[in-house]
């Protein structure tokens, strides 16, 4: 019993001491970041049976954490038949990758664009030392 309590206290101490904070924003589903041109009536599930029909939804999130260089966002909405979305990712080479997509009965179609110019560190040959023998 005492070992369990000590283990829980240690886990809580480690979790509270972690210095990693990610600022994120989650918008309510009523705040639609994408254009939804059609109004779809809400459907109520039938009594007693699982409702497996497509749902109307919308979401958005964004993460920007300077310390870890994480910078990305994603927004998506659906009218029950067509899913539209966009996401942005800061790539390791310094460019932004922006993707806009549509998924419907014809499949998934994405438009990918890049902003900025790729930057790579200057090549530095590795230091080597010669082993002269045993």
UniProtKB/TrEMBL annotation:
Keyword line: Cuticle, Signal
Pfam families on file: Chitin_bind_4
Keyword Signal: yes
Signal peptide feature range: 1-17
Disordered: annotated segments: 31-51
Biased composition (Polar residues): 31-40
GO molecular function: structural constituent of cuticle
One annotated Gene Ontology cellular component of this protein: extracellular matrix
Superkingdom assignment: Eukaryota
PANTHER family referenced in this protein's UniProt entry, alphabetically: CUTICULAR PROTEIN 50CB-RELATED (PTHR12236:SF79), STRUCTURAL CONTITUENT OF CUTICLE (PTHR12236)
Protein name: Cuticle protein
Biological source species: Daphnia sinensis
């Amino acid at each position: 019993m005492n070992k369990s309590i000590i283990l829980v206290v240690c886990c809580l101490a480690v979790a509270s001491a972690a210095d990693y904070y990610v600022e994120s924003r989650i918008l309510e589903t009523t705040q639609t970041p994408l254009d939804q041109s059609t109004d779809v009536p809400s459907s109520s599930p039938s009594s007693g049976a699982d409702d497996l029909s497509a749902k109307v939804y919308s979401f958005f999130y964004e993460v920007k954490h300077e310390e870890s260089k994480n910078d990305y966002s994603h927004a998506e909405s659906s009218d029950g038949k067509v899913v539209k979305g966009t996401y942005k990712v800061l790539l390791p080479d310094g460019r932004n990758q922006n993707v806009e997509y549509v998924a419907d009965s014809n499949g998934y179609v994405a438009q990918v664009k890049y902003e900025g110019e790729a930057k790579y560190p200057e090549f530095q040959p590795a230091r080597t030392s010669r082993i002269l023998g045993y």
